[in-house]
Description:
Blueprint: H1 4-41, H2 55-65, E1 81-84, E2 108-117, E3 126-133, E4 149-154, E5 163-166, H3 172-175, E6 177-183, E7 192-197, E8 201-212, E9 215-220, E10 240-246, E11 249-256, E12 263-270, E13 279-288, E14 294-304
Antiparallel strand pairs: 1-2, 2-3, 3-4, 4-5, 6-7, 7-8, 8-9, 8-10, 10-11, 11-12, 12-13, 13-14
Amino acid sequence: MPTTDQELTDRFIRSQSAVETTDVMSRVKRATRRVKVRRKLGVVALVVVVVVGTTGSLLALDKAFRGTHLPADQSPIPSITVSPDKPTASPSGDDAEIGTDIGLAFDVCQGTRLEGLDLVPDDVADTAWTGYRVNDAGRCSLSANIDRWLVAVDYTGDGRADLWGPLPMTNCPNVGCQPLGATDLDADGKDELIVMTTAAVIDHMFFSVQHTDGGHVIEPIVVAAPGHLAAGIAPGAPLVTAAAGDEGFSAWIRCEDYPAAPILVYTWKNSQVESNDPVEWHETMLQLLSDGMFHVIGATDLTLPQGQDPGFVLSQAPACGVDFNRWAPPNL
Length: 332
């Protein structure tokens, strides 16, 4: 039988653990709010590191943040497979996992691959990976910074990456990134790759594989001048769009004139939760042209009272052949 002192000690320890767990969840919620604010302001500096622990907890967050989804475009979705090359790395230190060999000069952590793509026009199905390089000790440190995140491609069909490039997506170290899909956005016969973050608000970045004298390179697709600064779309920077939402922020992507001359229509709104303040609305029409850049061909910015319809067409369904909002039905 434990003594009275021992019993009190055990109860104190259990109570302390519960408090610490609650504190962790509150920090995660606060970090999510800060991510939304950074998106609105267009700030690229990292302020907080959030570790998403398990697939189960991520799905729980996603379901909690899902809102009403409106009727959508019925664009076909390519048949592709997304799979992890290795389980998520364990905590950094002596027990941290080693990376995965995908064919590069270094191993890759949190490597997730997407198969069945057509990023280089030939008769071979291509594969794309995202992940981050191992640290100097060859381990998968959870504190990996954005400079270590990358996107890689196998275009020869042997299952080994032939090229890679940086993945300058700010939130990858915080919430993880993976290939989302690929589609031909400039109607030139080869697909562009879209990479997504795995958070309640899904960010997207677009990549193109280009032929050069030395072979091929993969690069993020940037925005042509003048961009659309009011909506956070800066000229000369990689295009980043979003879908889904949380705490007053919601975003949608739909498509026009696909596949002949695709136009991405990116809409987002932001409002203060539990407030009567006006709602900020932005709609940007983007087209990938032959110069390899996204051009803003139309834009609307509105500030409206709560509940007033902006008159935009809103959709959470697949667009331009890609399911930009993985958290919308029928996916969950």
